[in-house]
């Protein structure tokens, strides 16, 4: 062998040894890498350049396999992380929700502070429900609902329904139905506080923002009409069932009043496509739909969305009083 040839082979051997020593550490994690490193060790012990070429080819095959494995592993990990993100999307609103007075949000009209229990911010689209207490002399300022029909029930106390300068008395056990566009308000009379519940169909957001409060300094008088006979005063305390419905001109809402004896039950046909509610004025009831069961104490409310029929049963030793409100009025015709 010529000296020059020996030197060249020696240099080539040093270069190949460096290449073997600089193989990526990650290759050692694979059984294929173990084979390649084994080839390098064999070369260190005096194998030929042809074997070195074979080792290099094996190395690139191993590298390719590792790349493919890395891609597969990345896709598997991505699937694991993406799935929880899609599964964490918010659940649709519950069809039956129990709401208490403690859950209500306050709003003011004049000196009267009302509590909204059902309103758009909580997902209501067809109905609102308000619980209102007022003292003798307090006035719920005159206002107008541009697109909503207003209904309010006097559960306790006495009020006058005011329209302009005219006033009509509304005592305990009576309700007022006010079509949209009609100017109206109330003044609490008598010697005790008055308790009322009211509902607008559809919701009127301006009632809660204060825009309807005509008693504010500088506020403009309400813009609407006063049509004789348009505002209906209705008795409900001696009724057992619906006292406001389409036949009385109510196209957006129906209201029922029921007094249940101990253990008495009834089926409430709430809208299968729409909204309804059950408000317990006295006593307590259980509401059941399939395996779902809810307990309503006094002054609790059950708000129902697309619920359909539910079974309501008095769970107290005395009578329980339930007010049922629904929109559209006829649950059997809801679409």
Protein topology:
Blueprint: H1 3-21, H2 31-44, H3 49-87, E1 96-99, E2 105-109, E3 112-118, E4 129-134, E5 139-143, E6 149-156, E7 158-163, E8 166-170, E9 174-178, E10 184-189, E11 194-201, H4 206-209, E12 232-235, E13 241-244, E14 254-260, E15 265-269, E16 275-282, E17 285-289, E18 292-296, E19 301-305, E20 309-314, E21 320-327
Antiparallel strand pairs: 1-19, 2-3, 3-4, 4-11, 5-10, 6-9, 6-11, 7-8, 7-10, 9-12, 13-14, 14-21, 15-20, 16-19, 16-21, 17-18, 17-20
Helix pairs in contact: 1-2, 2-3
Walk me through this protein's architecture:
With 335 residues, the protein is an alpha+beta fold. The protein has two domains: 85 residues, no CATH class; 238 residues, Jelly Rolls (Sandwich). Strand 17 and strand 18 form a beta hairpin. About 11% of the residues have low confidence.
**Major sheet: arrangement of strands:** 2-3-4-11-6-9-12
Spell out the CATH superfamily of the largest domain: Jelly Rolls
Number of distinct helices: 4
Our measurement of the CA-to-CA distance between the termini, rounded to an integer number of angstroms, reads 100 Å
